[in-house]
Description:
Chain A has 293 residues and is mainly alpha-helical. In chain A, 72% of the residues lie in helices and 4% in strands.
Amino acid sequence: MGSRDRRRLRSAAWAVAAFALLVVLWELAKLVLPAGGVTVGGTRVLPRTDDAAMPHVWTVLARLGAPEVAGAAEPRSVGAAIVSGALFTLGLALGGLVLGGIAGMLLAVLMQRFAVAEKAVLPYVIASQTVPLIAIAPLVAGWGGKIAIGGWAWEPWASVMVISSYLAFFPISVGMLRGLTSPRKADVEMFRSLAAGWWTTLLRLRLPASVPHLVPAVRLAAAAAIVGAIVAEISTGTRGGIGRLIIEYAQSATGDPSQMYAAILGAAVLGLVAAGAVGLLELGLRRYRGSVA
Amino acid sequence: MTATGTDAVELQGVDKTFGSVWALAGVDLTIGAGEFVSLIGPSGCGKSTLLRVVADLEEPTAGSVAVTGTSARQARLDQRYGIAFQQAGLLDWRTVVENVELPLQVHGVGKAERRRRAVELLELVGLAEFAGSRPAELSGGMQQRVAIARALAPSPRLLLMDEPFGALDEMTRERMQAELLRIAGETGAAVLFVTHSIPEAVVLSDRVVVMSPRPGRITEVVGGRRPPVSGDDRAADTLDPDAVEDVRETAAFFEAVTAVREALRKGAATDGPAA
């Protein structure tokens, strides 16, 4: 086992320890703080800690195995509902990441190739991210509803994917642009002296050199794609994903808070899975992690 | 030096201005086939600009430039010269042998052929056993040798080198100088070599071209003390490294060093306002 593997194992152990610490703090808060919360001069400064506001960790876990709707004809456990919802959302987020990644990279290549494109497009790329997602969601759903490509009619999940890609493209285009422009002047001139054209220079110099900038950008984009997919599911009313589950469970949260926490837990695990996938990508690209010597 | 074939470089009346800065003024310079010429002078004298004009990395403002009998642009497109800078500039994601292959890959040479040639070149620079290593695993001197092997990959008739040993320590530097002389002798390539170091210029060159700044121009050409290559210049081990060391201790070497130093001082005296 190499020292790098050992370091990776150790960082995984730290992550597990941090989660355990969070669980302990949660339970400690329930144990020590008054159930009614802490109120100073009529203002509540700490939340209530009774079972309705902060259910026990084990109640949340136990809820995963309980049926989703009591007395349903085909009972499905909360856990199974969350897993299937998470997979649905993961698929959409992944699609959004791929779409956004392709768009972001093409945009970055365009901006690298034509300085005028960078000047013209970059401000809009940045401005695009200040428009709130909930304003865009109905627009995309509305436009999409008018599209029918061949025999294929626009489905609500397609809106979710597009909205998710809208968040994912930004870090990738910015990171990619930085990466593409990262080779030093001397390296670019070396390629010029070899009579390498723009395309060869892109393929053999700029793209490999952009990997160290691209990997962290993809990590950000993956997280953004998941948040985008969840929020888009909620604001377009798309069924089947974890966003919808969170809303459904939240509506019954006063009576059954542990169910909502279970759904939130599912969303968090989803983020971890995405981060892990990016980690695999990084592993596959590790020969490009170095800089230019 | 045998003057067979066309001259490696022929410059006539070359001017280069950057805005209002006069980088080169009326430069005439001819480098014969297989000749080793150094450019020396203070910072800002235009010696790097001159090399870049030959490499078609800069366009001259006026004058004519011929490289291996054709235009500088055509020479670049045909990979008729190899170039090495002060920074080795190796691509870290490629192995050593893949770095040497780069010029051939760009030129569309087949995989097997370019690998064969790259391995041959690594043998020439004495790094065959490091073919599979990453550049980051090599010392500065070794990296520079890989860069030289890369420059030699397309079998150029001309090597352009811009202070290639400037970042190396003195001991490594002297070893590299002997290495370079051996390689230049074996390949028969002409070399245009930019340097700050007077002894380096003298020991390597057939001719040392002294330049002065504002505007950048050639003020004097001094004969160098490049050690003679014994026997057939195609055979291996034609240059004994000790021969280079011996040259450094001859009276002729010191005379040439003194001549270059005086030429540099003269150039500085005519430059700018008097003290």
